[in-house]
Write a structure and sequence with these properties.
There is one protein chain. The chain has eight helices and eight strands; from the N terminus they run H-E-H-E-E-H-H-E-H-E-H-E-E-H-E-H. The chain is α/β, with parallel strands linked by helices. The chain folds into two domains: 30 residues; 214 residues, 3-Layer(aba) Sandwich (Rossmann fold), CATH 3.40.50. The chain is globular.
Amino acid sequence: MPGDDLRYLDWKIAARADRWMIKQFEEETNMRAAVVLDVSKSMDWTGSPDRLTKLSYAEHLVAALANLLIRQKDAVGLVRFDDELKTVVMPRARSVHFYRLVRTLSDPHGGKAALIKDALFRAERMIRRPGMIIVISDLLFEPGDIDGPVKSLRAAGHNVGVLHIMDPSERALTQAGEAIFCDTESDLQVSVSVADVEDAYRETVEHVVDEWRTQFSGAGVEYEVVTTDTPFGVPLRRAFRVRENLP
């Protein structure tokens, strides 16, 4: 009957409108987040075959964080970068989106530089209202490269967290004898005696970490050094501190 067809059509239109309203409500009430992942050549390194590389550890962390946020109906996006933007995935909150994020972690990578500035500006454009930006990187670039973008994010109302990924061998020299130090992003190699540089090396690393901590603290950014032998729950808790501080 024509009347039945019209009633069925009206029901379909109403159901579609309800789904659209629910989607809009979720987008307006749930948090939006962007994870900015450094996939440059220096990240693809480990000081021991018994440990994950910094990049592999970071990828596991990204997957765990995305899964937890999506379970809370938060929208999560991803920006992967080395010497250029490698992957940009817009934030979504649906469960199927998690599998897309995980698949992109295997996209090509390995450039010799880490252009954090472009990645952060792209993340800022992904989130229209105040949300959460989590940077996961070994921070092997100049502090000035990240200072401006971070201040822009904070001025826009975003909460920002930085997880500084380090291998335990980078934090303190643990071997003895002669060692060859290699800069993975410039191929520079220097042979030295560990005993001659051990104390100076440790002091230099701690000085650099303190400088990062001071810079980020002054900008209102959560900062945490995470070594690749740390249980994943530790950096995840720090990331969720960033989320909890949102208005």
